[in-house]
Amino acid sequence: MQAQLGPPNAPFASNLSMRSSSPRTDSPLLGEGSSLSRSVNYLPTKFSDAVLYNGLKNRGKGNQLGPKRGGGREAFRSGEARMPGEGDDDYDGVQGGLFGKEGGRTRPRLRWNKFKWSLFFSNLLFSAYSLASMIFLLCTWFDVWAHADIVRVGNRAELVVSTVAAGFGIITSVIGWAGILLNNRSFLAVYTFFLWIGFALLIIPGYLTFKRRNFNLDGKVNNQWGNDFGISDWLRIQNQLDCCGFFSPFVEAAISQVCYSRSVLPGCKGPYMDFERFVLGRWYTIVFGLVPFQIGVILVGLLCSNHITYRFGKGMMPKAYRLSMNSMAVIMDNYASQLAEQYGADVASEVLARSRSNLQLDSLPAMPYTNGTQANLSPLRQDTTLPRTS
User: So where does this one cross the membrane (predicted)?
Assistant: First the structure.
């Protein structure tokens, strides 16, 4: 008859003070200067069924040991491992091989996820209206449009701020394209932050033009013509609007071949106010019309920039916490020591041997462990149970 297992030892309260001052393990693999994974300090009390029974698909090629670590396009598929491996796409962010090969091997066909498509279309929209705005503003600066010189004289501050906003938008969109096409989340983080700055720069010219047009435009035009403009500015506006002087040729006029004391040209206040009212109204309407699109681009950037691939970040597990064969040796040593504390060395040896066989880790270095109160490992949970074995 098979011998019955005795009850497990009492919880480890009697040894807590001793273990708190002792090292995590007496394994020589955890000495100073060790390059082991930091996951050995946060061990589960037993392995999952997927690890014990090799439940995950071994999708690797060649003589890969154990189940594939996961990651890549299938990282969030049901039942898939979360830890990336060296061969996964987007393992460390930017990938090389623009012509389909990387490191002498052909890369798999890349597929874009819905987050990347969302970023692509939102940044395409952002690039389109930023570039269109810059082209329109440059045409104004170079006096391509009719009466563009009036805007350069009378609305210079609004024109400068709008040009800065459009230029900053183009720079931001270029950073966004770099992050999207290279799967680089660092670029996308900068891109999302710059979108907020671009939003502020977009609002400023809209506020300035709205305030100027709707709050005492008559008084502002009077003050601008009398205090801000010089003779050269008067002359440029007179030539554009075919007028002479502010009210008449005798009031604040710039003498020219068509503007003199007996000129029949009207004063410039009426035509100039009508032009300002029309231009300023169109200006803030366009700016405030772009605000919903800018907010939409910001929201897409916030929601999708960290999901440019199916894996969150460059890998589900930082490099310092990724497992290696030596780290697995320490993990299994700790696990066996905990079993030895509760069920004895014979049970621990049997479970450890079966686990090595199931994981195809017969080449794993065997680590010594102790039983009873000699073990100096502090268990992470007190409800340790024996794993199932096949």
Answer: 117-139, 159-181, 188-208, 283-304
